Amino acid sequence: MRFFSHWLRHPVVPALALGFLLIALPLASRFALGWGHSFGLLSDVAIGSLLLVLLHRRGWLLSVPLLLIWCLFTLGTVELVNAVGRMPEFADLHYLTDPQFISLSTGGSGLSQPLLALALGLCLVCYGVARWGQSEPKPALRAAWLIPGLALLIGHAALQYRAPSDADQWLQFNLPHKLLAEGLSAAQRQTEDWLDAGSPESPPDIHDLTALDLQGTPLLAQAGKARNVLIVTLEGVPGAYIEASRKAIGSSYQQAPMPRLSAWAERGMLTPDYVLHSHQTIRGLYAMLCGDYSKLDSGTPKGIELLNNPERSEQCLPAQLRENGFSTHYLQGAGLRFMAKDQIMPRMGFDKTLGRSWFRNEPYLEFPWGMDDKAYFEGALGYVQQLRKQKKPWMLTLLTVGTHQPYSAPADYLARFPTAKQAAIAYLDDAVADFLQALQDQGVLKDTLVIVTSDESHGLENVRLASAWGFNLLLAPEQAQLPALKSGVYGHVDLTASVLDYLALPMPADIAGRSLLRDYAGGRPMISYTNGLLREHDGQGTFTECDFRQVCRQYASPGFIADSARYLRRLGGRTARLLSQRAELLDQSLHAGKPDSQYQFAQRTPIKLKTSAGDDWADNLVGAQYLELPKGTRTRVSLKIRAVRLDRQGAQLQLKTKEYDRDSLVPLPVLPLLTRDRPVEVSFAFDNLAARKAFSFHLLGQGRGSIEIVDFSVVSEPLEERLLAAQKNIEENQALMP
After folding, report:
1. Which domains does the chain have, with CATH numbers?
2. What is the structure's pLDDT at 662?
């Protein structure tokens, strides 16, 4: 111990600890994680060496807190990439100190890289103890020592400009470097906007993205024979998991995580170049069922905006089929309240919207989000059997949940695979393959159009465009007349038009897209926003991608999804802004872009409480998630809850808010105890001086019995109008005074 204490006081120890913390450990972790890209290594050495010079010989009170932040950045980046396949952004920084995020991301099993956390902690402790023992800091290093690190940063930027890489962000940057580059790019854009302020720009034309195109040659000579429609939506599955899709685009991804579904893909019509427009289940469901692009940013999902637009909702696929005599059904394995699917899906036109509470068969394992995939498909098969007994044609949309974090799989699958994610994918592969086989054995495929797809992609490391790569497997009675591989670029925006085209039903006025049941002579544009990257293919062989710095690059690529593409040029100024402007026009809210909004999330149906508090996500009692609260507005919230059946202890309720999935600092009232004879009724408001995006309300409750949410309204209106109205009231009151 005396030797160790004496060693810590050696003057070289702080420098060694700094070197390990700032350079050695980041480099070692890159190689250990398989992130050994040359740009990333250069980024680590450049930023690490600059911080080493800045912090060496600095005082304990300055250096230790900064190094603690560095450790959180390093570990937090690894955990977020492991959890959701992307790097943190400015709005995510609170993630890195949020224990609930870590818990939810790992399913309560702890950090994914505990050795890295341990190594960072030990180095930080060694440095702190050593610096504490050297209370008199020596003069800091001269500024000239910064030159090598700055030269490396300049070299990194020059290489990025001359030979850009399409590798994932975390392979090319560490987090401080990413944030620095993002800030500099924002300043550059503001300067360009200021210089161009005197030159008016006409809005870009988006007709080629929003038009309905049925000019292609039909694959079928007449309407399809199927009388029913079944859409099977698999949570988070990328197109790379399907073998025929990998072969079609020449993918370098070598694994085969879903061999049984891949075998089924060779029995139907598979579309390999199939684009997912965004992340989040509700966005994917909206795009595929309403023939429209989902939001290409983090604003309020269009599915929620649909609640205030009954005219547009009548053009969604379920409503169109219902109008043409179909009974329409939606069944998912999770509860319905999260993201208000209990309201959104009926608004889209589903006669019945059912979730976890519908299932009576026993699950094979406990999963916080809902039914495991095997039990889910067994229940869904029973539901199909019920539908086949009715005389009316039917439409059924299914959504699994087992391949959502923290991933669901039985012990025998977990024993066969190195990670829970891989085990969950294999479990889903067996479950959906058994389901499709049962449909065939029972004759369902003879009279039913079956489409298997995914709501979003949970991405893959080192696989280009994996976050936007989906798949569409179509199984029809006329399979012999359809190609095994459907050529061309398609996406979720095309699914509604494709089903209506197959059934030869009238097309509503405002849907977009092409039909998968037609061949087209020319290309078409396609757009997507995933993993923080906005991408567009112009249909003429040019692919444009804008990164987190809004630096845009163009590539030569025959289709949207490709294993590689030839770099053409870097874009800036007005040309680069054109893509973001097109995305903004596509994002125009369904309530015509008005700055005020009003939503009612109360369903007035009994909700059974749990006896103990759960997590903020799976046990949320209200579906007000991922809203956008515009800048310069005041948001008013009214909440009323009554008891349906409660014991004498009553129910304890708690309301939370989050922004970008982290706790928000909005002042909230403490909810009183809910009892059988005393409902809870509160109102509050807060101002949005800056725009709030991905803003969520989380209502939690614990008790014995059931409650009913009578009112949960969220209204945002411009601050100016509110102040003018208040001033008018004051003037009117003064006029009435004697």
Report:
1. 2-192 (no CATH), 215-440+481-520 (3.40.720.10), 597-736 (2.60.120)
2. 73
